[in-house]
């Protein structure tokens, strides 16, 4: 039986080969031929067969696109002729055979083309990539893979552990949502869209982020070069006892000059969020 060779994206199967769409697959014929015989590769199509190659020659009557994707590899001086198919398409799926002229030797392999899903979608996701739920009620999580062949496996991971699996789609119920789940902070808010101050006068500005669990920490950046001035800031935190989430306000006091004209940015983050940021225009006038 032909076997897979030098193809990192393919996996040898007991009944044939599978390879990803767009990859390159090589089928090896385990026999060698002498000058008095020839080795042919062809694909079965129903009760008919389409010849692809004879020794190192590719069938000139094949469609040009297919012809360009075929290649004959192996050491031809010792009679090796392997079939290589590049940029594999779904249309390449089928049963291939190599045969030796003047003999009954035929070696067959079934090629399966694997197509990755176009996307994986989760129902009821908000624009900020959050799932909406209410503490004390069940939360139903539904995931669906779009496309894919053969039918893709779907996994749902919660805090790094597999919570549910399925074929093409899955549904998982979180019974009675508790406040034990961490929540990323909402994007911080400035009180004003622009900040105006004078040269050498300390900049005094604050921003607030809501609904984080655990409490968010802030980073402050100013100017066109995003200078980190967080060390000059302070934070205050308020716990909402009904939701067990935090509202955090950060205040920055920093002496600036006109070299910092541009913008001031505050970023909020906690252990489950890299950052949620907001910026305000920074206008520093001559004193």
From TrEMBL:
Span of the signal peptide: none
Membrane protein topology class: Single-pass membrane protein
Localization terms from the record: Membrane
GO CC, any one term: membrane
Occurrences of domain Ig-like (ranges): 2-112, 187-283
Pfam families for this protein: C2-set_2, V-set
Keywords in alphabetical order: Disulfide bond, Membrane, Transmembrane, Transmembrane helix
Protein name: Ig-like domain-containing protein
Protein's organism: Mytilus coruscus
